[in-house]
Amino acid sequence: MVADLSQLVKAYDVRGVVPDQWDASLAELFGAAFVQVTAADAIVIGHDMRPTSPGLAGAFARGAAARGVDVTLIGLCSTDQLYYASGALDLPGAMFTASHNPAQYNGIKMCRAGAAPVGQETGLTEIRTLVEQWSEQGGAPRAAEGLAPGTITERDTLTDYAAHLLGLVDLTAIRPLKVVVDAGNGMGGHTVPTVFSGLPLDLVPMYFELDGAFPHHEANPLDPKNIVDLQARVLAEGADLGLAFDGDADRCFVVDERGEGVSPSAITALVAARELARNGGTGTVIHNLITSWSVPEVVRENGGTPVRTRVGHSFIKTEMAEHGAIFGGEHSAHYYFRDFWNADTGMLAALHVLAALGGQDGTLSRLVAEYDRYAGSGEINSTVADQTASLALAKKMYGTRDDTALDELDGLTVTSADWWFNLRASNTEPLLRLNVEARDEATMTAVRDEVLALIRTG
Predict the structure, then answer these.
(1) What total of structural domains would you count in the chain?
(2) Residue 84 lies in a domain
């Protein structure tokens, strides 16, 4: 196919419908372009459980090998397992997954050696340009004269990945815990049994069968409807907690013993406190601008320095590297660790939660209460005719008030003494995304309703 990459190449990855938007022939071009842009002489490739993933990964490997690059295939893996391989082997990597998107989608998450991100500003634009050119020309140019094709070999990294994670969290003295895990038919069903093996856990598995059709629910635990089954099972089992992973198992969402979802901001604060303690009570922690006020508060209380950044994993990873940060967290349940090559791993965050809960006698709801201090709206999407005009309207209204401060680091953030909100435009849809937080529920509700009325009615 002649490539139309306008809808396929996103800010941080490649993602689209197979075979309508892309296929194995394009995957082969992406493989060739990836190794040219990264100047790699060897790469590592993994894939999720989607039916199209092995074929696309194999085509990418052929495209890379044809240009003299040695390829290591690690097969079925989570995205953070691919990051582990990239870091441990010090190789650029490519992960074939569409995360929580529906079954007909697939994609590629790419990184440089050491799991350094490849996004629009770090190589993805150049990769797109090459694929477009080569697609029009009918294929990638052949490798240099006399250059032998690279080798393609297989390697299992699951056991080493698990050992690395378990070496970063002390779980030796935790009390026995009953934990329900909803893998959503995604890659958590592949990684959890190995990582949790040997721990004092009574594991109750849900939807561990690898199935890229997602027969039970969408593998996106941030959508409340997708954790209903987990919440019910936690209560039915009398479990200590529940964990839900997304399709490629790089994000983890936590449910307490009451069946209530735990805010990713509270998990960010909890893990930040633990990582600061592990590093002698000092260090920098990155958080995006729509995590709770509680995150920078807890970081400071535990001797750390909080750094606020834009939403998006490439921004977080860049700030992690620039500041030498020990940890970073986002409202979307992405958690980043210095000791995991600044990459995100929901599994490591889950191990921290197990260690914190198992290291004391109280419930999870009581444990996280000190990290969940404010009332939040969650992210609310509104379809608008003109994103720019709606943002300008909000800026005009709140910019004239004496009791508010404005910044435009990412969208519009308005802060008052007792509340704040952030309004951001979607990059792909005619939506504005609103997040509100306040010191109490009534104030949060009032601010939320006021902003929604403003942007929805104009």
Answers:
(1) 4
(2) yes
pLDDT digit string, tens, across residues 385-437: 999 999 999 999 999 999 999 999 999 999 999 999 999 998 767 899 999 99
Q: Tell the residue number behind the tokens 């003299």, with chain if given.
A: 68
Residues 24 and 53: their CA atoms lie apart, in Å, by 10
**pLDDT attached to residue 3:** 63
**Which residues span the domain enclosing 311?**
264-369
Our answer to whether residue 99 is catalytic in this structure is yes
Task: Please state whether beta strands 412-415 and 405-407 pair in parallel, antiparallel, or not at all (unpaired).
Answer: antiparallel
In which region does residue 185 sit, left (phi positive, over 0), alpha (psi from -120 to 50) or beta (all else)?
Answer: left
Judge whether 328 and 262 are in contact, CB under 8 Å.
no
Q: How far apart are CA 27 and CA 18, in angstroms?
A: 11
On whether both 121 and 195 belong to a single domain, the answer is no
Helix (H) or strand (E) holding 431: strand 431-438
Residue type at 173 in one-letter notation: A
- Which amino acid is located at 279 in the chain? N
Is it the case that residue 450 has pLDDT exceeding 60? yes
- 243 by DSSP, 3-state: which? strand
Residue range 124-128: mean pLDDT, rounded: 96
Q: Would you state the structure tokens that stand for residue 274, as one six-digit string?
A: 């633990």
> Of 53, 99, 292, 390, which is the active-site residue?
99
> Whole-model pTM?
0.95
- Residue position matching structure tokens 């509340």: 419
